[in-house]
Description:
Helix content of chain B: under 10%
Shape of chain A: globular
Helix content of chain A: under 10%
Largest sheet of chain A: 6 strands, mixed
Radius of gyration of chain A: 14 Å
Distance between the termini of chain B: 37 Å
Structural class of chain A: mainly beta
Strand content of chain B: over 45%
Number of strands of chain B: 11
Largest interface: A-B, 22 and 18 residues
Oligomer: heterodimer
Radius of gyration of chain B: 13 Å
Amino acid sequence: GEDVEQSLFLSVREGDSSVINCTYTDSSSTYLYWYKQEPGAGLQLLTYIFSNMDMKQDQRLTVLLNKKDKHLSLRIADTQTGDSAIYFCAETTAGTGGFKTIFGAGTRLFVKA
Amino acid sequence: DAEITQSPRHKITETGRQVTLACHQTWNHNNMFWYRQDLGHGLRLIHYSYGVHDTNKGEVSDGYSVSRSNTEDLPLTLESAASSQTSVYFCASSATGDGYTFGSGTRLTVV
Lengths: 113, 111
């Protein structure tokens, strides 16, 4: 069945770039998303990319999509301590029953000062 | 501003009791979802609805029910609370094909 996988932890130094990776299995994805969850809060949509795009840039965030390898990445430039959070990758596919979204387990980003 | 609110934020209940968690959104979204978040499992879908009077089971629906009598609300009921249902519960809403807007969550403890 469909699956979205992420590494569980990533640790970077403040000011460095962070790259969070995600792989998915369903090649019929329409949209792919990155969400951020801070402690005690719900998930917040950070950015998304259409499946017919290769790259999307939004200020410090760069999303890269490799459809051939079913690989999605989120790069955060100049990582700050406020970026410490859990980052979830998600894909949405369209099927006979409507749209379906599957979330990865989340990558916990630690930013060291 | 439009929002999605969950209540209560924290709840402690006893095993066997019926519990209802509220979710209310003012985005006018057709789609609403309930997830539970547990360490090591990420987000798991409990129930979802694509519109008024529509409800569907997710991957972990046993012991839970929902009803959708209007666009704004999707309450989640635990019929007979069990310790395995201790978790953080998130409600979300979306327009079709768009990303989700999440509530702040309800932390439920079953003792």
